[in-house]
Amino acid sequence: MKKIPMAMTGLLLSSSMALQAVEPMSVEPDSERRPFAMSVKTNMLYDLLALPNIGAEVYLGQDWSVAADWMYGWWSNRGKHRYWRAYGGNIGVRWWIGENRNASIRQGHHLGVSAGVVTYDFEWGGTGYMGGRPHGTLWDRCNYTASVEYGYALPVSRRLNLDFSIGVGYLGGRYIKYEPQGDNYVCRATRRLNWVGPVKLEIALVWLLGRDNYNSK
């Protein structure tokens, strides 16, 4: 039997020690990865008022989410001087609290802050009210809001939730009070709007999206 040279023996021992020192790379199992989760929703109160709207919410970690929504309704019957027009949107951050929250599905209580813009033109055959200045940019025509919110979300089916929320804060800007006269509209006053109180009310139907974003009960 041939003897292994001492130099070769030392090389083999060094290689063996090096292999033992290298730890295998840890691969995060799919089950432990944080799943992507979001939702699409509509405020049914606005829908009942003929103001179509849509919103989206992206969930960040276990406790936080970012939400945004937009509404647009531009109805008119010029012959009878009837206008029902409004559009605008909000963006906000929510903090989910309570025992029902988890990494993907949002149920239970939430607190939040939001800010938004809105413009409008409401008239029903008589005195009309128009937000901002007509024929300007969006920022000329809009009023603006800032609020703190409280809400509660509950499941109604595997992929649907109902979300009840209310926002209290500030609504500000300018609006025009006008009167229709024949085919013309006469401005009666331009006033400053400073409202402190409820500025947002929502009963939202929420559609849960994402591989693991569904109600188990």
Terminal Cα span: 72 Å
Question: Treating each run of at least 4 consecutive H or I residues as one helix, how many helices?
Answer: 3
Portion of residues in beta strands equals over 45%
* Shape call: elongated
Largest sheet: 9 strands, antiparallel
- Residues in helices, as a percent range: 10-25%
Question: Would you tell me the structural class of the helices and strands?
Answer: mainly beta
N-to-C order of helices and strands? HEHEEEEEHEEE
Mean pLDDT: 83
For the CA atoms, what is the radius of gyration?
29 Å
Low-confidence stretches: 25-31
Question: Would you report the number of β strands?
Answer: 9
Can you offer a commentary on this structure?
- This protein is mainly beta.
- It is 12% helix and 58% strand.
- It has three helices and nine strands; from the N terminus they run αβαβββββαβββ.
- Strands 1, 2, 3, 4, 5, 6, 7, 8 and 9 form a nine-stranded antiparallel β-sheet that branches.
- It is elongated, with a radius of gyration of 29 Å.
How would you summarize this macromolecular structure in one to three sentences?
By secondary structure, the chain is mainly beta. It is 12% helix and 58% strand.
List keywords for this structure.
217 residues; mainly beta; 12% helix; 58% strand; elongated
Show the helix and strand layout.
Layout: H1 6-21, E1 38-43, H2 44-48, E2 53-60, E3 64-77, E4 82-97, E5 108-124, E6 128-131, H3 138-141, E7 143-155, E8 160-181, E9 184-209
Antiparallel strand pairs: 1-2, 1-9, 2-3, 3-4, 4-5, 5-6, 5-7, 6-8, 7-8, 8-9
